[in-house]
Amino acid sequence: MRDIVSQPYRQRYWSAHELVVIGVFAAAAKVSTVLVALAGGGMNPVTLLLKNLIFTTMLVVMLYKVRKPGTLLLFVGVNLLFSMLMLGVSVTLLPSALAAALLAEAAAAAVGGMQGKFGPLTAVAVYDLTLRCLSLGMSWLVLRESPALLISAVPVVILGYLGAVGGLFTGASAVRELRHAGIVRF
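and the corresponding structure tokens:
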């Protein structure tokens, strides 16, 4: 039997600190968006915009804090797991979200990776747009017999995306302020 002490140290891809940051941001993003929806009296246009703005802002800050490839994919997995266990979200969201995260990671790699200046912003922008398109595609697949239901969902998705676009700007602003405070380092 080999001695455990004599084994060479194996460097992990993510440190424990980075994994904690990803988990805390995933849980905080989900909890804060649910609280906004509940405090706003349900899903009305204002809470829909605000909920997406907060989620996207937190996602941008998290990606600038942990700047490694695969971080968005891990965040999406933890976020969906949290949603399925605590909120009863359907598993049918999983393929769309993972595909959107993979495409967003590829887009970030195309503009210089997560270490680049615009990598995290590109990843979040592509993730939000792709997730909404794939979710509408999944809804179309399920609701083929009654497309009128899908037509009524399109304005809601567009309104949510407008909140997500606003979240890109507030996220970039938050990162700038956190960088001055020394919390986010480049």
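(Above: one complete record from the training split.) The longest helix spans residues 147-181.
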